[in-house]
Amino acid sequence: MQIGIWVRNFAVLLFVMERTNGNALAISMISVAEFAPMFIFSFIGGTFADRWRPKRTMIWCDVLSAVSVFAVLITLVFGTWKAVFFTTIISAILSQFSQPSGMKLIKEHLPAEQMQAVMSIYQTIYTVFMILGPLLGTFVYQKFGIMVSIAVMGLAFLLSAGSLTFLPSDRVNVIPKQGTTLRQEMAAGVRYVLGKKILTLLGLCFLAAGLGGGLVQPLGIFLVTERLGLPKESLQWLMTFSGVGMFLGGVIVMTSAKAISPQKLLAFGMFISAIGIAVCGLSTTPWLTYLVYLMMGLVMPCIMIGINLMILQNSDSQFIGRVNGILMPMYTGAMVVTMSVSGLLKETFSLVAMYEAAGVLYMIGLVFLLPLLHLPKTISEP
Prior knowledge:
The chain is an all-alpha fold. It has helices at 2-20, 24-51, 54-78, 85-109, 112-164, 182-194, 197-216, 220-227, 235-256, 262-282, 286-313, 320-348, 351-369. It is globular.
C-alpha cells in the first residue's frame, strides 16, 4: 500500500506540474484531493468500519482503489489528463474506511502487551517510506511516465489486497447485529467520546497540536532562507534529518519503551516538539537547526504511537472506527486551518513569532495531557 501511495503522490504531482507548467492552483488541488476526504468521510468511514467486518472492508477498499486506478488509466488513454486527480480522491476516500478497520483488527486479534510493538513496527515502516517514497515515486515517473506509474499504483493496491487475505478471519461473534440507523450510530460515537475523559482530553490535545503544526508547516522554506541564510534547496536536508530521526525513534520505541504508558510517550513527544519548534524559530545556526530537526524526528514516533495506543486501549472494539473518525480530523482540520492562513500571518508577524506561537500551542496541547499522566493503562476489552 505504501508503494502505491507514494508513487501516486509524486507521479500525480510531477505530471500535473508538467501539464500545467507549474500552475499553483492546479498543484494546490492535489492537496485538496488528498485532505478533503479526511473531513468529509472520516467520521462516516469510521462509523461504517464499526458496522462492517474489518478484514473484508480492508480487502474491498484495496480492490476498489485498484479498479479506480485502472479506470483512470483507460480515461487517460482515451479522454482527459485531468482524470488523474481521481486517483488521489478515490484512494483517499477509501482509506477513510480502511484505516479504522485496520485499527479494529489490531484491537480484536492482538493481546494488549503486543500492541505497542506492532504500532512501533508500523510507524517504522511508514517512516522508511517517508524517506524512500519520494525517491521511488519520482524515479518511476521520470523513468517510465504517467501510464506506467498508474499501472504500478493499481498493481500495488492489488498486492496489498492479496496480502490481506492471509489475515485471520473476522470474528463474527464480536460484530453485533445493528438495529440502528447510521445517524444514530454517529451520534452514539460522539456521546462515547464526550463521555470518556481520556478521549475528550486527547481530542483537545489534537486540536492544539494541529493548530501549532499547521502554523509552521508551510514555513520551512523561509526558515532555511531567512533565518539560516541558506539556498532553498537546503530544505531537503532538514527533511532528511527529520526522516532519519523518525526511523531511529521508531526503532527505539519498538525495542525499549514497552513499560512506558502511551500517555507518557505522547506527553514526552509533545514537550520535546514544543521546545524544538521554539528553538528552530530562534536559531540562526544551521548545525543547531539540523540537530533540532533530528531530535524532533526522534520523538515523532512517540507522538504517533502514543496517539494510536491511547485510542486502541481506551476504546471498546465496537467504537474504534467512530473514535478514530472523530479524533483524527480534529488534528488534520486544525492543521489545515492554520496552514491556510500562515502565509498571511507571516506578512504581519515575524517568522520567529510564528515559530514561538507554534511552540506555545504545543505546550497548551501538553497541558490537556497532564491529568492523564498518572492514570493506569486502561484496556477496553474487545
